[in-house]
Amino acid sequence: MTFLVVTGTGTEIGKTVVTAAVAAACPDRGVAVLKPAQTGLAPGEPGDAAEVARLAGGHVTAVELARFPDPLAPATAARRAGLPPVRPYEIADAAQKLATEHDLVLIEGAGGLLVRFDDEGSTLADAARLLAAPVLVVTPAGLGTLNTTALTSEALRTRGLECLGVVVGSMPAEPDLAARCNLADLPVAAGAPLLGAVPAGAGALEPADFRARARSWLAAELGGNRPAD
């Protein structure tokens, strides 16, 4: 696997921390993380790609294609900033160039799978199709996650894309009944295996501790040693 697209069922659910965990679980491989569109940050502020590299280690190259200051969907943020949007072919071209010097290229989306990157309606799914890349779906732990996970997985299938699996982006230390049951039900909703559960607050760990623990959160398909569900 050279390319892996990381998407989510929504925003602020742990995509960046999951991306960092996957990168940290592959310390013997050259890894690049590509953030096509970073929104909601001013120039000079560290973005999601930089955070992945900070947590995962020096074997990770961080690349950001575009930055828009408003915390909005990429198409809307680009329009408001008067800047050109990021197109799927640009994402694919950048990923392919990174693949010439890296063993694994992680492409982290913004928000969910079908968030628009331009006014023509292009999405992260279009970039995944150009790369023939599998897609990892990051999802919340609690009530409501089964529906959004099923919708995301269905959108992948209708576009002929592979859902590699699902990772819970922020698993509570003391999960409630819904979160506990969802661990068993998410693979059914997704039609794909549960490949990990990253504990809540993992992004606040010291990087060395994060790297030491990352493999325990992820299944072997992602470089970890957690049994797949």
From TrEMBL:
- The record places the active site at K35
Q: Which cofactor does it need?
A: Mg(2+)
Q: Which residues form a coiled coil?
A: none
Name the residues that bind substrate: T39
Q: Which superkingdom is the protein from?
A: Bacteria
Q: At which positions is ATP bound?
A: 12-17, 48, 108-111, 169-170, 199-201
| Location of the protein in the cell | Cytoplasm
Q: Please list the residues that bind Mg(2+).
A: T16, D48, E108
The protein's UniProt keywords, in alphabetical order, are: ATP-binding, Biotin biosynthesis, Cytoplasm, Ligase, Magnesium, Metal-binding, Nucleotide-binding
InterPro entries hit by this protein: DTB_synth_BioD, P-loop_NTPase
Record's catalysed reaction(s): (7R,8S)-7,8-diammoniononanoate + CO2 + ATP = (4R,5S)-dethiobiotin + ADP + phosphate + 3 H(+)
Q: In which pathway does it act?
A: Cofactor biosynthesis; biotin biosynthesis; biotin from 7,8-diaminononanoate: step 1/2
Q: Which Pfam families match?
A: AAA_26
What EC number(s) would the UniProt record show? 6.3.3.3
Q: Which family does it belong to?
A: Belongs to the dethiobiotin synthetase family.
What this chain does, per the entry, is described as: Catalyzes a mechanistically unusual reaction, the ATP-dependent insertion of CO2 between the N7 and N8 nitrogen atoms of 7,8-diaminopelargonic acid (DAPA, also called 7,8-diammoniononanoate) to form a ureido ring.
- Assembly, per entry: Homodimer.
Designated name of the protein? ATP-dependent dethiobiotin synthetase BioD
Species assigned in the record? Streptomyces gelaticus
